[in-house]
């Protein structure tokens, strides 16, 4: 797909957005500090402002990536090397359906790169899956590696296998990822051209998007990440490994002790070690690998729980490393790792932000401590610019606003999942490694969705009460808060849209 370049007008609007953001934050902070409200309300106001700053900071981070691409445009690296060094293709598998693994093996066998060896890394504990992996390895004439126990989950399995592999590069594909025939022929020369390049990460797109609404919308979320965000990280040498669809220099991996086994997202944690050791990473944006999206809410929540927990573990680790070794990464790299590690804290931040209009409607508890006209004068310019630039920027990449909204709805109903997962990650609570199911799209029982239902009911009740108050009181503050409650209720209603058979 040919991408539209970032125009000069778009860049100017991004700069204006940053100015509007600075003005809004300054005015908000001023009125919060000088306000004369009861102590409890002031404490709540500060907590709300902190949550708001967190969300604004992540928005700022997104648009800095957009701006970075206008200053230093992202380019796919090209290399003319004709060398074909040995590549070990690793396919970690644990309790994977036979037909899924079979498709991946077929795709890997068809890679147009002669100097390759394919390995099934079977970490299954159930005999039937072990037998299927053995039968597939024999049929496709590939290597089979297995072990006793499950130490370190996926990362441990990769490390155990790498101890017996001497290839110059390793390519890792999850068991449901199917590379195109030219994948290695494009990626390996890029690594050959730069001896300090440790990692080339490629995007992940789903082929089963028509199977369910969850699959379609999760694909949109993935695609948004692999557009401006990944490209922006790449130009800052801060792109991290995403666990599949990548090629890595084995010497670089060995130099940092292999894959990080202390995190459920071993990929990002390992990239942090590589960057701190002076290695480089690159995002290569062409879609050369296609996989399977989660098809129901249960599978999606399991995937998001794993990612959120791993990101929180990364945040804890990166914070400690920053305090001890601040010079080991550039400021831009640290900032990108902060954004990546803290992203899923957005569940707690959103819960606080959701509470503000409800608290005002039900209990007259203020959160802004400023005149509504001042709020609208400072917030609306930022809000309009951010929405306009976000949707128009992605529309240049051929995303429709309607599909992006569905992605936001899916994220909104994941708030309870994010909240639980980041607590587990920060407190380093051990949970078993879970593979995202690939066996169809059944609806969840609503008894399994009690937190989401409670939030939906609370918003519906607050909306009704708010509309009643508007009818009798005609207060502009009520209009503002009812608007936000209605918007949040709309997003939470995605619960019924996505929980399908």
From TrEMBL:
<dbReference type="InterPro" id="IPR050321">
    <property type="entry name" value="Glycosyltr_2/OpgH_subfam"/>
</dbReference>
<feature type="transmembrane region" description="Helical">
    <location>
        <begin position="43"/>
        <end position="68"/>
    </location>
</feature>
<keyword id="KW-1133">Transmembrane helix</keyword>
<keyword id="KW-0328">Glycosyltransferase</keyword>
<dbReference type="GO" id="GO:0005886">
    <property type="term" value="C:plasma membrane"/>
</dbReference>
<feature type="transmembrane region" description="Helical">
    <location>
        <begin position="415"/>
        <end position="433"/>
    </location>
</feature>
<dbReference type="InterPro" id="IPR029044">
    <property type="entry name" value="Nucleotide-diphossugar_trans"/>
</dbReference>
<dbReference type="GO" id="GO:0016760">
    <property type="term" value="F:cellulose synthase (UDP-forming) activity"/>
</dbReference>
<feature type="transmembrane region" description="Helical">
    <location>
        <begin position="7"/>
        <end position="31"/>
    </location>
</feature>
<feature type="transmembrane region" description="Helical">
    <location>
        <begin position="343"/>
        <end position="363"/>
    </location>
</feature>
<dbReference type="Pfam" id="PF13641">
    <property type="entry name" value="Glyco_tranf_2_3"/>
</dbReference>
<protein>
    <submittedName>
        <fullName>Cellulose synthase (UDP-forming)</fullName>
        <ecNumber>2.4.1.12</ecNumber>
    </submittedName>
</protein>
<keyword id="KW-0812">Transmembrane</keyword>
<keyword id="KW-0472">Membrane</keyword>
<keyword id="KW-0808">Transferase</keyword>
<feature type="transmembrane region" description="Helical">
    <location>
        <begin position="478"/>
        <end position="498"/>
    </location>
</feature>
<feature type="transmembrane region" description="Helical">
    <location>
        <begin position="375"/>
        <end position="394"/>
    </location>
</feature>
<feature type="transmembrane region" description="Helical">
    <location>
        <begin position="453"/>
        <end position="471"/>
    </location>
</feature>
């Amino acid at each position: 797909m040919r991408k539209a370049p970032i125009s000069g007008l778009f860049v100017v609007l991004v700069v204006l957005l940053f100015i509007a953001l600075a003005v809004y934050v300054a005015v908000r902070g001023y009125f919060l500090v000088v306000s004369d409200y009861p102590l409890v309300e002031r404490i709540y106001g500060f907590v709300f402002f902190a949550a708001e700053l967190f969300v604004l900071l992540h928005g700022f981070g997104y648009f800095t990536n957009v701006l970075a691409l206008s200053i230093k445009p992202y380019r796919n690296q090209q290399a003319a090397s004709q060398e074909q060094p040995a590549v070990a293709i690793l396919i970690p598998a644990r309790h994977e359906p036979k037909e899924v693994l079979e498709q991946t093996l077929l795709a890997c066998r068809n890679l147009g790169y002669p100097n390759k060896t394919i390995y099934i890394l079977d970490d299954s504990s159930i005999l039937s899956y072990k037998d299927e992996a053995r039968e597939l390895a024999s049929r496709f004439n590939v290597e089979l590696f297995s072990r006793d126990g499950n130490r370190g989950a996926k990362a441990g399995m990769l490390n155990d296998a790498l101890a017996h592999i001497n290839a110059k590069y390793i390519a890792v594909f999850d068991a449901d990822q199917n590379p195109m025939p030219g994948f290695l022929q494009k990626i390996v020369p890029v690594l050959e051209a730069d001896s300090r390049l440790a990692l080339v990460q490629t995007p992940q797109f789903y082929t089963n998007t028509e199977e369910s609404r969850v699959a379609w919308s999760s694909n949109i979320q993935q695609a948004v990440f692999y557009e401006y965000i990944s490209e922006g990280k790449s130009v800052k040498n801060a792109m991290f490994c995403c666990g599949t669809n990548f090629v890595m220099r084995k010497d670089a991996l060995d130099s940092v002790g292999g894959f990080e086994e202390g995190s459920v997202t071993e990929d990002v944690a390992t990239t942090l070690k590589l960057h701190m050791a002076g290695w480089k990473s690159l995002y290569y944006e062409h879609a050369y690998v296609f996989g399977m999206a989660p098809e129901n809410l249960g599978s999606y929540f399991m995937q998001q729980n794993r990612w959120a927990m791993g990101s929180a573990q990364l945040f804890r680790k990166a914070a400690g490393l920053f305090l001890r070794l601040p010079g080991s990464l550039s400021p831009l790299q640290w900032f990108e790792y902060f954004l990546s590690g803290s992203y899923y804290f957005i569940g707690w931040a959103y819960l606080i932000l959701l509470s503000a209009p409800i608290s005002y409607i039900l209990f007259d508890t203020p959160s802004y401590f400023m005149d509504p006209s001042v709020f609208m004068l400072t917030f609306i310019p930022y809000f309009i610019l951010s929405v306009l630039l976000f949707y128009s920027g992605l529309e240049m990449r051929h995303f429709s606003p309607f599909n992006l909204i569905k992605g936001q709805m899916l994220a909104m109903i994941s708030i309870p999942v994010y909240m639980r997962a980041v607590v587990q990650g920060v407190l380093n609570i051990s949970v078993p490694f879970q593979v995202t199911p690939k066996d169809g799209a059944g609806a969840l029982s609503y008894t399994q969705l009690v937190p989401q239902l409670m939030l939906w009911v609370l918003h519906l009740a607050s909306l009704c009460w708010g509309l009643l108050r508007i009818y009798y009181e005609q207060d502009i503050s009520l209009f503002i808060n009812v608007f936000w409650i209605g918007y949040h209720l709309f997003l939470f209603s995605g619960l019924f849209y996505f929980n399908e058979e």
